[in-house]
Structures are given as C-alpha cells and as structure tokens.
Amino acid sequence: MSQRTIVVAFGGMSPEHEVSVLTAMQAISSLKDTDYRLQPLYITKSGRWLTGDPLRELENYKDLKKLEEEAIECTFSHDDLGKPILLETESKGFLSKPKKHSIYAIIPAFHGSEGENGAFQGACDLYNIPFGGSGVFASSLGMDKVKAKELCMAHDIPVTSGVSFNENEWEERQDEILESITKMGFSVITKPVSLGSSIGVSKADDRKSLIDSIETAFRYDQELVVEEAITPLMEINCSVLGHGDELQTSVCERPLGQEETLSFEDKYQSDGQGSKGMASADRIIPADISDELTAKIQNLSLKIFKTFRASGVARLDFLVNADTHEVYFNEINTIPGSFSFYLWEESGMNMTDLMLELVEIAIKKHRLKIGRIRSYETNLLSEKAVKGIKGLKGSND
Q1: Choosing from 239, 280, 301, 338, which is the catalytic residue?
Q2: Any idea which of 76-90, 256-270, 331-345 has the lowest mean pLDDT?
Q3: Banded pLDDT at 192 (limits 50, 70, 90)
Q4: Could you identify which of 7, 23, 238, 388 might form a hypothetical disulfide with 109, taking C-beta atoms 3.0 to 4.6 angstroms apart as the criterion?
C-alpha cells in the first residue's frame, strides 16, 4: 500500500476556489499519517494544472503568484502499461526528468463550476481513474438547482415554489418575470443556479430589493432561481455516505446564521475561523429537533441520494418551517465543504476514517465499472465494413 498514490484535486475556475483549497488542505492533513502517498493536483483560477510539494501547505496560498511559480505543470496520462498517471510536464532542474505519479485513486475536493459539476469526474472516467464521490450524472444534477428540483418533484420529494430564468430572458421580459415572482408573495430568496457556499444568495422583501438581488446574482451565474422564503425558517442538514444500497446517514445539524438564510460569511468566516472551512460555522450538532423530524429528514436524505445516483459522501440541505415542521428539499452538495466530517464525528468517524472510506468506495465503484463488458468484439473498420460505408456514402450522392 505504501506505493499507492492518492491524488487530492482542488481549486478550479470557480468563485468557491478558496473554499476548495480549505477542504483539500483538510483532506491532505488527515491522510498524511496513513500508508498512502499523497499528491496534490491544484487547478488555478486561470485553469492551469499544477502539482508539487509547495501545494501541500495552506500558508503558501497567501501568495498565489509565487506558489504558481514554484509548482509544476502536470496532466493526466497513461504509463507504458496503460495505467493512469499524473504526469509532470516540466522539470525543475537542468538534469532532472519530469516525474510520473501512478494514481491509485483521486479525491476531488472542488466546490462549484467544472470541478463539482461533473466535468472533472468525466475526465477521470475518460482516463479510467477511480475517484471518490459522485459521478457525472449526480454531480451535474447537484450543481443545477432547477433540474435538481424538477427531479425531486417527479419523485414526490417536497420542494419550495420558484421561478427560474436566464440573463437574456431577464433583459427581454423583466416585467413578466417580476410579476410571476410577485405572485408567490414576499419574502423571496434569489440564488444563482449553479453555485454553492451561498455565493450570490440574498433575500428580498419588496420589488426594489428583488431587482437589486437579481442584478447582483447575475454577476456570478447566467441563470437564476427565485424561490419562496420559508418563514419561520430552520435549516437542517444531513450527510449520506456510501454507494448503491450500502448507505448510512449521519446525525442532523442545525446551522446558525445572522440572517434567516446563511451567508458565505456565516459558513466560512464566523468568529474569524475561516481557515477551518465549513467546520468553523456555528451549528448545533445533533440538531435540537424531535426524533420524529430527525428520522424524516434522514429518510428523505437516503431517498434523494439514491434518486440522484450519488456516491461517496454528500450533504443534503433542507428548509423546515419551524412552526409546522414541513420539510422541503433545498439542495444536494455532492462535494460538501470539509466533506461534512463534523457530522460523522458524532458517529465515531473522524476525518481520516472518512477519507479512507471515500477511497475504498472509489475503488469498489471502479471495480464494478471495469467488471462490465466495455467493448464489442467486432471491427467496423474491416474491409467488408468499409465497403459497406463507401456504398452508403455513394447512395447519398
């Protein structure tokens, strides 16, 4: 096992770039005393792929320009036996050669955009690399709040009412959209469709503040959703871990914020503890709710996790009417901040245990995939087939 390399991938061209760095540093720190060899894969804000020892220390990210100069360009490739590797595409020395790092599994620690929306997961599939967390399907759905809610509605999972629209639609029929939103009644919550960490999310209590919140949110995403606000509101979250039918739920948590809807600052900068990621947010764990409500949310979490075909670890966020205890699905985070380890600690699983479990799930999921027939034994480029294609082409002339 000492030769097995775990790649922790993070960063990316996302407004949640810094949050991703925090999560990755937590993962690297938790695995440093295990038998695995760790290799960072940092994607810069401009999209460069980098690796190297300087990327292991959070302190170095204070000067990104210097860090990028010290790190090494890299890419995915295969060795002579066809096994996936992380290939350094440059050398840091006159006589040194670019290094090749064999990949046992990858732990994606991205938040938002191409790292969490399935694009990176697709690259892993393309290179046949085991990776922790959800695949392309669940990842892309989880990053699209509108499509996620539509899927939930099709499976009788309760969601709040909302109006979605893109930037062009807003410019062309603003009054019509405002009228549709107003019919829901105030207050409402404006959200970018494809972002997390509460970036661009705001509450509006009247038409003017609604327009302001929409214009602000369009700075982060080209599509928005405006949803009815649940009042009085409790936010309750629950994490699910596993793959297929082998699933378990964590305890529930009740996040605490200065506003009814948690802001980015509430989640990552409360009490000046932003360097600890989501673990720094104020919360009550286990949530101070009834056993009945806890069980309801845990069961809904399992149902949603399965419906989305999620894998690894995810956090399910719910909106609860504090008076009636009506529960509404809010979103699924297929790569939750800090991997939601703080929820699993209550079940006796620390961050290291959680990361090791993610690696095992990645390997198990990959073995199931490669155990299937992945090619069909025929040669469409044989002489006979080529003649048939030529004939087909001639028939269209």
Answers
A1: 338
A2: 256-270
A3: very high
A4: 23
Q: How confident is the model at residue 384 (pLDDT cuts 50, 70, 90)?
A: low
Q: Both tokens of residue 25? A: 């540093």
Query: What does the mean pLDDT of the chain come to?
Result: 90
Active site residue 171: no
The pLDDT of residue 114: 84
CATH 3.30.470.20 residue ranges for the chain: 145-157+231-365
68 assigned to active site: no
114 counts as catalytic: no
Domain with CATH 3.30.1490.20 in the chain: 162-228
- Domain 145-157+231-365 superfamily per CATH: ATP-grasp fold, B domain (3.30.470.20)
Residue numbering of the annotated binding site for Mg(2+): 317, 331, 333
CATH 3.40.50.20 residue ranges of the chain are 5-131
pLDDT tens-place string over residues 244-268: 999 999 999 999 974 555 554 555 4
May I ask the CATH architecture of the domain 5-131? Answer: 3-Layer(aba) Sandwich (3.40)
Among residues 140, 197, 198, 202, which one is catalytic? 197
In terms of CATH, what superfamily is 162-228?
ATP-grasp fold, A domain (3.30.1490.20)
